Amino acid sequence: MDNFSFCTPTEYVFGRGVESQVGEYSVKYLGTKVLIVSGNNSAERSGLLNVVRQSLNARSIIYVELNGINPNPTDDKVYEGIKICREKGVTGVLAVGGGSVIDTAKAIAGGVPYAGDFWDFWSGKSVMVEALPIGTILTIAAAGSEGSGNSVITSLKTRQKISIRTNVLRPKFSLLNPELTMTLPPYQTACGIVDMMAHIMERYFSNTPDCEVTDRMCESLLTAIIASAPTVISDPENYQARANLMWAGTMAHNGVCGVGRAEDWTSHGMEHELSALYGVAHGAGLSVVFSAWLSYVSKFNPAKVEQFGRRVFGVHTAGEAINELKKFNSSIGMPVTLSELGIASPDIPLLVSNLHKTKGSIIGSYYPTNAEASYEIYQLML
Amino acid sequence: MDNFSFCTPTEYVFGRGVESQVGEYSVKYLGTKVLIVSGNNSAERSGLLNVVRQSLNARSIIYVELNGINPNPTDDKVYEGIKICREKGVTGVLAVGGGSVIDTAKAIAGGVPYAGDFWDFWSGKSVMVEALPIGTILTIAAAGSEGSGNSVITSLKTRQKISIRTNVLRPKFSLLNPELTMTLPPYQTACGIVDMMAHIMERYFSNTPDCEVTDRMCESLLTAIIASAPTVISDPENYQARANLMWAGTMAHNGVCGVGRAEDWTSHGMEHELSALYGVAHGAGLSVVFSAWLSYVSKFNPAKVEQFGRRVFGVHTAGEAINELKKFNSSIGMPVTLSELGIASPDIPLLVSNLHKTKGSIIGSYYPTNAEASYEIYQLML
Question: What pTM does this model have?
Answer without folding.
Answer: 0.97
